[in-house]
Amino acid sequence: MLKSDHLSFLISPAPLQQTFFMPSPHSESDPIQILGFMLVKNEDRFVATALRNALPLCDRFIVLDNQSSDHTRQQLDLVAQETSASHLEIIDLEDVQTSQSYLEPYYGKKWWVFAVDGDEIYDPTGLTELRAGLQAGNHQDVWQVFGHVLHVTHWHQRNATVRGYQSPPARPMTKLYNFSFIESWTDCPERLHGGTLTFKSDIDAQKSRYVYFEHCSWEDSPFRCLHMVFMRRSSQKNTFQYRNTPTEELNSSLFSQSWLAHLKYTLYQQVRVIRKKTGKDRAYRKGPHLLRDAHPFHISEYR
Description:
Elements: E1 10-11, E2 33-40, H1 47-54, E3 60-65, H2 72-80, E4 88-92, E5 111-116, E6 120-122, H3 124-135, E7 144-146, E8 148-156, E9 161-167, E10 175-178, E11 182-186, E12 196-199, E13 209-211, E14 224-227, H4 246-255, H5 259-284, E15 289-293
Parallel strand pairs: 1-4, 2-3, 2-5, 3-4, 7-13, 8-14
Antiparallel strand pairs: 5-10, 6-14, 7-10, 8-9, 9-15, 11-12
Helix pairs in contact: 1-2, 4-5
């Protein structure tokens, strides 16, 4: 285990002024590599397990902590002490709108990007198998790879089982992208979300994909995830936290000037929460409610 003074963490509110993991100049002889990428805010309950389980797939891993006020950063640091300082980098991020800038240097390079949220717990043994396949050239002809997902509603810690809704028919949310296809990706409001994506060649992003659940079962899949979407993410009382942008901070400041404005802002936030919950129900509560063995996922939580 590495001592904390051997760890290299970059902390700055101005991401573009930071020196973060950068790919080498592009060459056709470059090996295929995988970058792990995590953007979190107040997700201390499962974030350590999510990060720890995702590391076996990746050559490098960047974590952006968007000003968490719970124990998220302490949990991330705990995992950092277990791994190589040259492999994992944790960065404090003030503005979520700058998060895509950390991925821009990888456009057009022989890198896969594996994006993980703080409530996404992967099978680490399966990811080791998936890594070997990607490095051997598997799926190099597709833009995106989808894996098996169970959207978890109940976790029974004592007997290590989970219940939830499986993809399909529920929507999958795994995020593994072949960045060698990218020419540019601009105007993203948040990492890997929206914006204008331009490929080097004329491909159909909706069709250029490999879908594991079309080729193998949950038990045989090297790419499977327990999505703890219906569980509390944080030890804090307020479960739903929105990532920071300057606009949100300004609105919060303006609406706190009077009790009426504050009430309006509170109602506005509650409507957002209801919409978010309803959207998750529509996307993820589909099909039979299944029981699965959680032993391979080694789930632990912050209490």
